[in-house]
Amino acid sequence: MDSLRHNLSNWRVGMFRWLQTSSVLARVKPLLPDTLKAFIKKVVVSNGCARIELGGGAVFEYGLRDNYWHPVASDIRNYEPEVRFVIDRFVDGQTLFIDAGANLGIWSCYVGAKIRSKQQVIAIEPNSAILPCLRRNQEINGQSFTVLERAVWKESRRTLSFSENEHHESSRLHFHETDAPGNRKVISVSTISIDEIVQDALRHSPQISKVIVKLDVEGAEISALQGANVALSGKNVLLLYEDHGRDIESRVTNFLLSELAFIVYCVDTRSPQWTVWQVQDTRELVHVKTSPVVGYNFFACKLGSVFDAEFRAMCEGRSRVNAV
Fold first, then answer.
1. Is there a contact between 62 and 177 (Cβ–Cβ < 8 Å)?
2. DSSP assignments along 21-69, one per residue
3. Boundaries of every domain in the chain
């Protein structure tokens, strides 16, 4: 299987380079679907990497051998459309955006182009296999965000084990090295809490009035939230978090509803006419979380916050919900 993936990756790199030579593209372009024509035109291939435009001046680079990013790159505007929708709706110059579990930094790139203050866009990623690509995206976007090589957890300056994998979705934090799978590279990582990130950002950017945290830390979401007591006590905090399909108990959503008394919303993009609805009970998510291999994004905020008011208006039809 690994040999097959390697051969497919080599074929993919070669195919893109071949298609982008002007003489070849001129011959085959009339035969290609419109979406592929547009993608080939805008993608830049160099040294085995592709670079695409995200909009608003932001660009994003990934390896052509990356089996996660390459399939979605040709239709990047439909990658996590509910996240793009919420970012476009709420992010402004007074926002602090924390990208916890940033991976290659697609959302840090996108938000960085909007806020234009690297002290207000913080990408946190502990995976050393991913970090060079994340730092590359930081560079090509004019240092529009800050990169922290840390793991988000309930306490700062602790050392935990991290089982590293080139694929973000299969990397994990572990309390003890013996907890990690035997076939994975295990590294020691330093932790940082959301509270420390927020407090440090406020020292540099006192104009911050809203905090948006994108939380995708592969099973460590509750521990991360336990390190955000001060941040979450503020009124205008929005959590963009992942509740994975394999978690049939929806533990993160349950923790937000029952322990933190947050209001949880779903932006449902499954049909052409998007809808927004409030999640009252985790049992309601069985109709959304239909695949055990997919993570699903939800949004949580405090009752009476600016985020809650806007989401509530969308639920009641007083504010339009437009597909991006």
1. no
2. SHHHHHHHGGGS-HHHHHHHHH-EEETTEEEEEEETTEEEEEETT-TTH
3. 2-72, 80-315
Q: 128 in helix, strand or coil?
A: coil
Closest by Cα among 322, 270, 279, 284 to 299:
279
Q: How far apart are the first and last CA of the chain?
A: 37
Count each helix (H run) and each strand (E run) in the chain, helices first: 12, 15
- Convert 139-149 to b/e letters by CB count within 10 Å (16 or more is b): eebeebbbbbb
The domain over range 80-315 is classified in CATH as 3.30.230.10: no
Strand partners, 320: none
pLDDT at 239: 98
The more confidently predicted of residues 94 and 7 is 94
Q: Of residues 59 and 323, which shows the higher confidence score? A: 59
Q: How far is CA 63 from CA 5, 48, 73, 133, in A?
A: 14, 6, 11, 8
According to DSSP, the β-strands at 295-301 and 237-244 are: antiparallel
User: Which of 16-30, 86-100, 220-234 is least confident?
Assistant: 16-30
Measured CA to CA, the distance from residue 321 to residue 274 in angstroms comes to 6
Distance CA 321, CA 92 (A): 19
What gap in Å lies between CA 190 and CA 9, rounded to an integer? 33
pTM, to two decimals: 0.85
Helix, strand, coil distribution of the chain in percent, nearest 5: 40, 25, 35
